[in-house]
Amino acid sequence: MSRIFFQMIxxxxxxxxxxxxxxxxxxxxxxxxxxxxxxxxxxxxxxxRPAVIFSxxxxxxxDGYEGAKxxxxxxxxxxxxxxxxxxxxxxxxxxxxxxxxxxxxxGRLVGTPEQWDEVIAYSIRAVEAARRYLSERSNVNSKAxxxxxxxxxxxxxxxxAIETPGYRAVVLLAPAAMPTSKNYRLRAAAxxxxxxxxxxxxYLAVANNDFEGIRVxxxxxxxxxxxxxxxxxxxxxxxxxxxxxxxxxxxxxxxEVTAFLRQHLP
Length: 266
Prior knowledge:
This protein has a single domain (3-264), classed as Alpha/Beta hydrolase fold, catalytic domain (Rossmann fold), CATH 3.40.50. Helix content is 41%, strand content 25%. It has 10 helices and 10 strands. It is globular. The two termini are 26 Å apart.
């Protein structure tokens, strides 16, 4: 089967994901009694299914769930549907904290270090709330929950895996370097001692023309240290695009992400 034909099949499967998904907006509550919405996609199955928590990037937090779609940013539904089409229950917490105060404006981070730390800490709590929601569902295999995220959400997913271990796998799509943050920089997460806390297999995807901070930290710390401490670590750092390339579910990386998940999920 040719690579082009195989990619066409994958694209078709992704586009048809809604026929197998039952997307709805639900409400999550964090350990601090903060409430937020989440996109939840269930699958029809008599078995307890693996589940994925998908964390979106800054554009959705800044522009909103519907606003990001209208402005050509990330459509969170597409990631949830793509995961559903692979047989995984999926949930995407919709984070809105400090939407305008901490953001990315024309390639420049806006916000104080304290504000960015507040945003990431809140986002980690949101991911944990999603994990608790999944674990309480009778059709979810609570021992097969994945943390996955893009950009700011990739940073959040990595810190979530460090601070709240027990995920079955971790997928990082261009995790943000967060140089403005004091406590949640990517370089800090990429230290060997912190990465040792992650027992789960990790997949890292970075684009050729991604932000320099992401490429540098990945090359100098995240990749070599994960190679030291995580035998199941896999990565690709030469995807053909820039940081925004991952806003869409593209077969060039989705094939490899889903192959990785199939390898490590029951």
